[in-house]
Amino acid sequence: MPPDLADRLADYARRKRVTQAQVVETALNSFLSPDGSERMEAAFSRRMDKVVRQLDKLDYRAELNSEALALFVRFWLTANPALPDAARAAAQAQGKARFEGFVEALARKMEFGPKLADVTSRADRKV
After folding, report:
1. From residue 120, how far is each of 55, 62, 127 by CA, in Å?
2. H helices within the chain, ranges in order?
3. What whole-number distance in Å separates Cα of residue 125 and Cα of residue 4?
4. Distances in whole angstroms, Cα of residue 62 to Cα of each of 56, 77, 104, 116
């Protein structure tokens, strides 16, 4: 056995308060057991299921964001008529100020919450 591996084995056995022979025997039994690959596959499947659930949540939140934005834009376009040329400069200045306020409010919301996805998640749990 390579010296560094022997040192690691001794250290592990000392930490677990078992003999090195017990560590080697357990490792060999685990490695050679016929169900070892099945256990690894089951553990891998559980991890993959967790990742899939996380991706599903991420997909839902992305769809929620897209739909919220589309609904807002549709409402905004419906509720705001076109401006005459004379009022356009004042409206652009006011729009710039409102946008800056929006960005500040968004930053506060992202930092302190509650976020829309959290609110909708709670609503989903009540149904």
Report:
1. 17, 13, 11
2. 3-16, 20-32, 36-79, 85-112, 116-126
3. 53
4. 10, 22, 22, 11
Phi, psi of 83 (to 5 degrees): -95, 150
pLDDT 10s digits, 38-89: 878 888 999 999 999 999 999 998 998 899 999 999 998 889 888 898 999 9
Q: What is the DSSP letter of 18?
A: S
Q: Which two tokens stand for residue 24?
A: 């080697």
84 — phi, psi (to 5°)? -70, 155
| In the predicted structure, residue 1 carries a pLDDT above the cut 70 | yes
Alpha carbon 41 to chain centroid, angstroms: 24
Residue 48 in tokens: 């993959």
